[in-house]
Structure formats: C-alpha cells, structure tokens
C-alpha cells in the first residue's frame, strides 16, 4: 500500500501517460522524417528523364549549327564556283559588282574558311586569321575531312557537314567541292567552326543550359556511380551529385578523332526545393504534433487526472476515516467521470445509510426497538463523565420463562413488545431512558438527584404500570415484574457493578415473591455470596448440628435437646440467622433440615442405647421441609432406618409458617402427631400469636420466645403475662417450654409460675455433639 497515499497511483498514471505521449511524438517524428525522405525521392525521380531531354535539346541546337555550317559551306562553295567563272570572264573587279561574296562571308557566322585543293592542302584562307594552317591539329582536321569527303556517299553529293574532333578540340566542319571543268583542278571550301568556349557560351545563351564539352577520359563509362539511360536513340550517362546532376552524351564525330562528350550540369532544383519544402513542412508538422501532444497531456491532466485525483482523495478519506458525511462535488462536465462522480456519491449515500443501519442494529434491540446494552453502557458512561447522578432500575418479568416455554416464543416476543410499549411512555420524560438488555430484562435509567422517596415512587409506578393483563391472540396474561435499583454514585462508580447491584436487588425482590422493588444494599451482596456457597455446603459436609439441652423442672433432669444447625465456612462459623432465611428462599433448607433430622435421630439412637429411653431431640422444621411429598413416609423411613421411636422426635414449627397455608399444614400436623411425633409451636409470643388460634392448632408444646422472658425477674407485668400464658397453655393441655433463659432468677420464677421445661444459656449454649454428650453425662 506504499503508493496509495495521496494519489500515488495517479502520479504513476500521469507518468505513464507522459511516457506514451513522448513515445508517440518520437515515433511520429521518425515516421514523418522517413515519409519526407520518400516524398523527396519520388519528387526528384523525374530528374533522370529531364536531364537527358535537356541535353538532347542542346544536341539538336548543335545539329542545327552543323546544318547551318554545311549549308553555308555549300552556299559559299557554289558561290566560289560562280566567282571563278566571273573572274575568268569579267575580271575580279567585276565580281564585286556582281556578287559581293566577301561581304557575305564576313557577315556569316563563320570562324574559319579555307579553300583547299584536291589533296586538301590549303590554297587560300578566306576567313580565320588566327588559324595556323601548319598546326597539327588543323592538319588533322583537313586530313580527316579529306577522308570523309572521299567516302562514296559524300563524293557523289560533293559536300558534307559534321563534327570532326582532334586532340585539341572538336569542330563543326562543312565542306563543299568547287567543281571545275577539269576535275583534277577541283578545290574545296572548308568551313571550320571550333566548338570552343565561345561557341559553348553562345549555345548556353541560346538554350539557357550549362553545357561543357569535354574530351573523353574513359572515366565516364567506367564510373560505377554513373547511370546509363538510353533515350531518343542515344546513350546518356547520368551522374547524381548532392547538389547537381551531370548528364553526359557522346558527340557523334564523322572522323576518327578522339571522343568528345557534351556535359550538361543541371542543379537538382526539384529535389532541393522538395527537400527544403518538405523538410519545412515536416518540421512544422512535428512541432505541431509536439505542441498537440503537450496540450493533450495538459488537457488530460486537468480534465481527467486532476478530477480522478480529487475522487481518489475523497475515496481515501472514506476508506481511512469514519466520516461518511463526505460528498463529491458534482462537476460541470458531462462525461464518464461526471457519471462516476454521481455514482460514487450514490454509493456514499448508500454506505451512509448502511452504516446508519449498522449503527442502529448495533445499538438497538430489534424486537422492541429499545436501545440495547451497548448503547445503555455508552449512555451511562456519558452521564458519569458529566457527573450526573442517576438511578438504575433493573426490571425482570416474573414467570416470563413459563409463558415463553409453554406458549411459545411468538407469544413471548409479543408480550415483550407490549411491556416495552408500556415502559416507553416513561421516556417522554427526557431524563429517562429504557433499554432491553436481553430476555425479559429491562433497564431503566433515570437521571437526576437521587432522592429515595422519589425513586421508590417512580419504581412503584412502573410496577403498577407493568402489572396488567396483556392480551395476545385472544388470550390474556397477567404480568408482574420484580425490580432492583442501584444508585450512582452512592452504590458504585462503576457501571458494571451498578448493573450487577441492581440485578442483585431485583433478585431479592424476586426471592421475596416478586412484584416488588428493592433498593440495593451491601447486605444483599453478602447474602448473595452466601447463597452461592450454600449450594456446595451440604455436599462438602460443612454443616454441623449443635444441641442445646432442655431441662425439665419437674424431675430436675435434662430430658432432651434442640438441634440447631451451624455452618463451618472457610471464614469461620456461620449462625443460622445468616443463612437459614436465605436457604428458605433458595429451597436449600430442605436438604439442611434433612441433614439435621438424620443427625438428631442418630443422637437419639445413642442415648436410647445408653438407657435414656425418654430422651428426645426437637428439630426446626421449615415449611418447605414439611411440604415435601410423602413427608410422613420420609420421616418414618428415617426413624425406622435407625430404629428410633417416633416419640424421640419433636418438630418445632413457627406460627407464621402455619398461617401461610393453614389448612394443609394443620392437616399435616395432625398426621404427624398421629404417628407419635410431638409438634412444638416455636417462638410463641412474637408476631401475631393468639390463643384463639392456638386453641385449634394440632400441637403438643408451646415454646415461649426469649423476648418475653428478658425482664421476668424484675418486671412483674412481664412475669404475669408469661404466667397467664403458661396457665392458658396448661388449660389447653399444652406443655410449655421457655427458651432463652440465661439467669438463675429466671429459672426460679419459671419454676414458680409452673413452666414445664426450660432451655437457655443458663444450662448450656448449643453444643457440638461430643460436648453435648459429655454435658449430659455430667449433669
Ligand atoms: P430458635 O428455633 O428460636 O432457636 C433458638 C435460638 O435461641 C438459637 O439460636 C439458640 O442458640 C438461641 N438461644 C438459646 N438459648 C439462648 C439464651 O439463653 N440466650 C440467647 N441470647 N439465645 C439463646 P440459633 O442457633 O442461632 O438459631 C436461630 C434460629 O435459626 C432458630 O431459632 C431456628 O428458628 C433457626 N434454626 C436453627 N437451626 C435450624 C435448623 O436446623 N432448621 C431450621 N429450619 N431452622 C433452624
Ligand atoms: Ca426452635
Ligand atoms: Ca425459638
């Protein structure tokens, strides 16, 4: 991901595009150059045709010159024939008058004119003062002319004209025989016009060409660079130079002199012009191409790449950040990138929606659309950060599990929705928020100064609101709720603890019958801890039974004992008030009572074995213990198992436990008594004890509570109350045991007022079995 930062890829792309443009520019330049070369070559390909044509034109000119010289030779030869006759007949003076020949000659474009004899020896020089007749070259011309003249075809005609070459020069030569009567005396007119510089200048002037006459040096035909072109029945040799083209063609000479060539030098104008023009044109095209490419690159950079970079930056922001409020600016162009921009904006929109949905799902309970635990935790943290006090109400529906299990989840869900709807009304107060944290558990947070009265009123109102008949699919269900309340910052500064505490307080409400609220306190925590340990305590044999002796006044003996349970925990001994109420709620009391029962029976067994067959142990029987199915059978079985008579066992029952389900309990107690087990009414004098009630109860003994005996030795009234109680019990044929007796004075008074049995620290505290046995032996 190295390059993804800030348009790294785009920079790469820009470089690539630049590279493409540079490559295209170079390749197109090369192609233009090659194309230009080709065009130049094509354009100048006519040179090889044009050169010989021009040369031929020059040759034609020269041929014309030859013809002229020939005809002049003929004309003047004939003139000479005539002048001869005139000279012979009229004298030389007359000739002038008749034909003014000298003047004509003078006028004619003749360089040299000779009169030669039959043997072509010079008789007379008519024109050409600078001609040296003795010159080898002149002699050569004349010798060749003689041979040519003697050729058959010329001999008949008597004249010829053409080019005769010598070592020095080429010449146009015209010869005409001047016939006489005696052919032996024949002479010849010879015109020699040297093809010299002057001549060529003249020709060049006429043709407008640049022509030279050069003597063959064999190099022309052998030069490999020279191209031979045959045109107009003639061989042309073309030599291409950089700037010019040379065309050579042989001079047709009549004699046997050396070969001379005409050389026409043509500048390669077409080619040069073509080169110049095409080069300029290609140069311009190349520059235009470069400019176009640069402009195109800049255009792409601005109109495409810059926009892509912009898109890239925005996309980067979206991918790296959490801000989805981003939107791409819609651009003024109407092209694919604009479409992409629009599409991306649509995508961002959908993303935002999607994220919002996700956020909703993450923060809400989809069933009830209340906020969920996450959002609640967030809200609580917020309150804490703002130093706001608040109360947290943990609500759990009573018996919801039953409804869910028996009527199905659909009904359960519908019920939860309706409950949520009831609760939602509280959110009209902006200080209240409500969340469902799972199952049938709701948490209500109410911010504001924590005032216990207000909180309790609020809790109560919620319970009342929730406790109603909900109808679902034509059925009606009554719902109650249990509630626990924890307070911030009073109970804890930590939200997890606060939730836990409210849960514990709720649990308390539930344990106490539900449809209640409880504000958390530290004791709940303790009892919770105990409750958790209680489960394992029986299995781990952590309970021990202590026995408190019961003294019989009439025979001054210990006649029995009350079995009282103790819990030896890691942290020391726990007394019943710490765990019995809890065990009663959790139901663990059944196991505890059962354990105590067995221990008590085995103690009885021991003392019966020792001969004390009247010895008994009374055990405290909780309501749950009594309400077990087949309770009688269970007890009988236990007694039988250790072979202990039913008379050795007494059951202590408190009044409030009987009241709860009086009919059932009274029936049970009757059955218990029927099999010979004595029933003791425990803690008499506390609560709503009334003799009217006692009258009808199937009991044998009343245990007067310690609280009634406290001041009995000083307080006459207290004494008389107890005295009355005892006498009334006796009237009802009930025995009386006074418990919690600590002083001798109390013992004395109890004796005085006819109490039957006494139990209390005065005789002994409850003792572990071994110590109890020792105490009993020694008493
Ligand atoms: P209780 O049945 O009224 O038991 C008598 C309580 O008075 C015992 O307390 C005993 O230790 C205490 N006591 C006896 N003499 C004196 C005295 O002279 N002065 C004072 N201050 N107290 C005296 P304990 O053992 O703490 O038991 C408390 C209660 O727990 C019992 O009250 C009984 O209701 C219940 N309990 C004890 N063991 C069991 C049991 O195994 N099963 C059930 N269901 N309840 C039990
Ligand atoms: Ca008792
Ligand atoms: Ca008692």
Automatic annotation (TrEMBL):
Which residue spans traverse the membrane?
A: 16-35, 278-300
Any Pfam family from its record, for instance, is EAL
Domain named GGDEF is located at 388-522
**Which ranges carry the EAL domain?**
527-779
Under the heading PROSITE patterns, the entry gives: EAL (PS50883), GGDEF (PS50887)
What InterPro entries does its record include? Answer: Cyclic-di-GMP_PDE-like, EAL_dom, EAL_sf, GGDEF_dom, Nucleotide_cyclase, Rev_trsase/Diguanyl_cyclase
Which Gene Ontology molecular-function terms are recorded?
cyclic-guanylate-specific phosphodiesterase activity
Query: Which PANTHER family did the record assign?
Result: CYCLIC DI-GMP PHOSPHODIESTERASE PDEF (PTHR33121), OXYGEN SENSOR PROTEIN DOSP (PTHR33121:SF71)
Q: What is this protein called?
A: Diguanylate cyclase (GGDEF) domain-containing protein
